[in-house]
Amino acid sequence: MELLIASAVGILSAAGIYLVLRKRTFPVILGMSLLSYAVNIFLFSTGRLMTGAPPILNKYQDMAYTDPLPQALVLTAIVISFGMTAVIVMVALAAYLSSRDDRIDMIHDQTTGGDSQ
Amino acid sequence: MSLFLIAALPFLGAFFPGLLIRAGRDTSAASAGLASFLTFVGLMLHAPAILRGETVQARVDWLPQLGLSVNFYLDGLGFLFATLILGIGLLVILYARFYLSRSDPMGNFYTYLLLFQGAMVGIVTSDNILMLLIFWELTSLSSFLLIGFWKHLPEGRQGARMALTVTGMGGLSMIAGMLILGQIAGSYDISVILQNKDAIQSSELYFPALLLILIGAFTKSAQFPFHFWLPHAMAAPTPVSSYLHSATMVKAGIFLMARLWPVLSGTPEWFYIVTTTGLITMLIGAVIALFKDDLKALLAFSTVSHLGLITMLLGLGTKAAAVAAVFHILNHATFKAALFMTAGIVDHEAHTRDIRRLGGLRHLMPLSFTIALVAGLSMAGIPPFNGFISKEMMLEAAIHSSWMGNPYIIPGLATLAAVFSVAYSLRFIGHTFMGPKRTDYVGTPHDPPAGLWLSPAILTILVVVIGLFSGPIASPLVQAAADAVTGSHPKVYLKLWHGLNSALYMSIAAVVGGTIILAMFTPVSKLWTRAGVPPAKSIFDAITGVVIAGSRFIADRLHDGSITRYAAIMISFTIVISLIAFQGGDMAGPTRELQDTGLLTIVGWVCLVAATLGIVVMHQQRFYALILIGIVGLMVSLGFNYLSAPDLALTQISVEVVTIVLMLLALNFLPKDMPSETSLTTRLRDITIAISGGLGIGALIYALLLRDFTAPSISEFHLANSYKGGGGTNVVNVILVDFRGFDTFGEIIVLGIAALVIYALTEAVLKSNASAYLLNRKPYQQQAGDAHPGMMVVVTRVMMPVALMLAAYIFFRGHNLPGGGFIAGLIAAIALIMQYMASGFGWASERQPFAYHGTIGWGVLIAAATGLGAWFNNVPFLTSDFGYFKLPFLEEFELATAALFDVGVFLAVVGAVLLALKSLARFAWQPGIQSEHAIDINPARDDADMNKKEG
Questions:
Q1: Chain A neighbors of B919, CB-CB under 8 A
Q2: Distance CA B207, CA B633 (A)
Q3: Which of residues 343-402 of B touch A (CB under 8 A)?
Q4: Across the interface, which of A4, A17, A100 has its CB nearest the CB of B689?
Q5: Which pLDDT tens digit goes with each residue over B534-566?
Q6: Which residues on neighbouring strands pair with residue B69, listed in sequence order?
Q7: Model pTM score
Q8: Cα B923 to Cα A25: distance, rounded to the nearest angstrom
Q9: Pairing relation of β-strands B882-885 and B68-74?
Q10: What is the ipTM of this complex?
Q11: Terminal-to-terminal C-alpha distance of chain B
Q12: B 631-670 near A (Cβ less than 8 A)
């Protein structure tokens, strides 16, 4: 299980990094979303992995609980990363609408064709 | 008056002159003067205690764990400086009122001046070196504003920039030095550092710290080779020159050396660096001053020379020299400020400061002449004025010191500097005021109104009084300051006549030599011009030019406008330093066993990995990529659920829905696919970076997962107290709304700000010319025949109450079972978004009575009010309270203030999500595309239409 989680985090990060290095806004947004997943799972996993032990206190019997603190942190992180994604999407959109170009590089003498006229 | 108030008053006062300038220049000047005066009075109230040898302290701890506290202390040294800063400040405020012309923005001037005054008072009263550094930088900034006060003059702007560059650079170096010093001493409190002489001087970091601090002090106090900025700062109005560049700011470096004298001095490093620098500066300044034709330039180089003198005295490291240094600080401030003001008066009345065009003014301006004569003779070191006494003490100290074993170098060079000092002082007096009356004056020079001569006159009286009665008048102050500098009780014995000793003979030699040089001024001056001294400004410009070109070269290589490139560099750099950090540490062996994995988990993993790789491969077909990222999100939330995090699973899945809707909306406007535009090499580079990054992160978390915590986690506390202290069994929710409520409070504010940013951007785009494009945009693909399919409309409308009910249910159970404000907010937002999607933007907006900005605002306010409510309960902000209640026919239930806080979270989340999505959706609005009625299920309308047709 640990191996699965670690490899998933690694693959998500690698894919995220690759997409962040693309030259158009949309893949960069996708890449940042993938990185957010990776970071959230990473943070969550620092509480170590447990199955069937949600941190919902049982009044009637003693039992093991998983670490609640990373969960609380990640919960807000998920919501905040939505806010971040929304802002980036909006910035990308505003940039595209005002320049009709969705490349993120500022080099103007380097013509790359594509759908930017 | 508390030291806090003394330090704060000039800053508070700085508001008034700038505002009150509308009520006239007198009011503005009076308000500045009042602020200075009150501070001065406050300071003087401490005088008896300070002169008794006590220190006054004021302290508030801010972050004591980091050594950050706001603490001031006032001892003799600080008191001497504060007296100079505030006393001369008052005189300068009076002088400037009459000096500045009607066209100068006087309000700005006084505001800058008071800012500067506050920063200086802060430096000399700070007990914490970090705070001192902030005040130090503030003096650099405010002096920049003051030097460049006449913005229309290029010299002013260039001089201001040069001063800021040099002193700012020194300030940076000093920050480093001070931090090292604080590290060695183990405290950032100066009073503690001063106790740790042995630890500091034996530390191997002593020398770097000393060097860095001295660079800071030398740049500020215009010591060679950093002296060149001071003459260029003379482009400032004269009140500034007389205040900053003679009496106060340039002494800040000296103050610092004096302040740290007990711990830094006494070593060979200190002696050779400080004494040699001081000696060279003293000599060079004096020589150059003689050949300057501009009155203010002459005075500026003379100031450089005198600052060198004080530095040299501090460098000698003996107590007698320290006493002489302290006394000369006082004396120099009095006579030099008076001389600058006199130069300003001459400039004001004769309309030139060029000595070659002046002369004979004593007949026209007898009062100014008297002032210049007394102050100038004091500068030359002629008895019975105060400059004489401290110069004698300096020469006396010089005689008793040897440089590299040679006992003649220091006294010899000091005497030589004194020779030139006499020469330029006499030139200042002689070539300006003496000699025959000229015929080519611009206008008719005459003594200025009282407002201008009063300030220098007061200073001149001090020059005479301190000279004649140095024992009774100055001794107590000098004693207190010298005690503070040396950290002991040296014998301060000030008197005019010390008998016939070597120092007196050296003085006499200096006067004779100076007079001879001045008598031969014309040939000597020609010689000087022929020798040619490299102009400092061109050297400075060349150096800054090289630095700028160099940094531009590096920046252009790294930052060529390609954001992709920055990202690649940043990520690679992060990977490399992480690797280095990882190599440097030790890792214990694994302490945890690998856990077994079921088949379902592997299936989920395969889905996740396949979808992720699919996104990478297909990211050019954007719709497919979007579908795939939905799968990733789904797998992540299933994973959370499997790994005992039901709250996270619920949050992730609902966020997933709104994110996909958001991205779909955005894709509506963005290009749907994109060309391949990167070369194979670039792609290989990116793949390499990505794989190394992924491997690194994966390996790190894998290593982490196989090891237990090295220290007990605070989670135990949360698990143990969640029910007892927070009244809830869902520990995650209790952490969010109770234990870490302040964090959550910040987070909903951030979320709200993000939504408002999106709203503002939308407004900006819609107001720009992009809106024309949006209105005339052709759909990218054939649009669906029915924009609002009837089935979807009906289903979403039926589902809405159910979905809201679910949100309410999730909300209320949140404290004890998975759920809570965040999740409920997302579900409610989705319920509303469905209406927008199914029935159309126009239809849904019409039925939406509240603006979402307001919803966010109410959310934050309710959360804040809940937090504030805790104060009425006499507990800190956001402390929750709860109780159990029983109503007839119902089970016992619980009411917690945390639930009210959660309402705030709920509202903020609903508002933020909907505001963001609604803003984006507004781009889509085009005239005519929205059906007027989202779905025609209103029989009444059908009847009306029918009637219309028939009629």
A1: 90
A2: 57
A3: none
A4: A17
A5: 777 788 888 889 999 999 998 887 777 788 888
A6: B61
A7: 0.70
A8: 18
A9: unpaired
A10: 0.91
A11: 91
A12: 632-633, 636, 639-640, 642-648, 651-652, 655, 658-659, 662-663, 666-667, 669-670
